[in-house]
Amino acid sequence: MLPLRVARSSPGGSASAVLRALRHVSSRVSRVQAGEDELAQARQWLAKFGKDTIPQSICEVSYSRSSGPGGQNVNKVNSKATMRVKLDDLQTHVPRLIIPTLQSSRFFAKRSDCLVFQADEERNATENAATCFRRLKQAISEAAKMVIPGETSAEQKERVKRLYVLVTHAPETPSNRRPGISPRKVERRRRRRPTRRRRVTARNHSEKIRPLRWPFA
Length: 217
Description:
This is Prokaryotic-type class I peptide chain release factors domain-containing protein. The chain has 217 residues and is α+β, with helices and mostly antiparallel strands.
């Protein structure tokens, strides 16, 4: 339940203050509800994510000469594939939550505002284009798993609740009051450490002049 704060004012302005507070609370409730609904839709989209989720029609593929391994076709045949996908076209097929994550990935080209994928491992240009498309789907899937959290089950909520109760209501003991060194180790170190009285006594004993013992009684 969101808190409702109404400022004190004159009798004539109390009604307007209440209306402003109600509008503020209703706007906060609508924003929270919209965020939960958007997250639920993103979870459903991720659960149904597959090979047909992203259409190939939004991908722009170009070919160039490959410089990698490939035998006699290297630098002679346009087998290298470069795929570009504009974010404006991609937003209609993916949740809005993962767009910032895709913009921060290594495949994003800021000047053209698109994702760029390249492949030249195969000799065939069509196979390299298919490799670019697989990398596009993998990048989208990884971004979605990073941003969209899984739904918490009732058992996990109950387990977290029990742990919270145990931690907050635990009695204060030396173990949780001073974590790290146990009291027994502290006492042992204190006993080993020489006090000022012991140091003075040891110094006086070393500087004390002992009387000579004559050989004759």
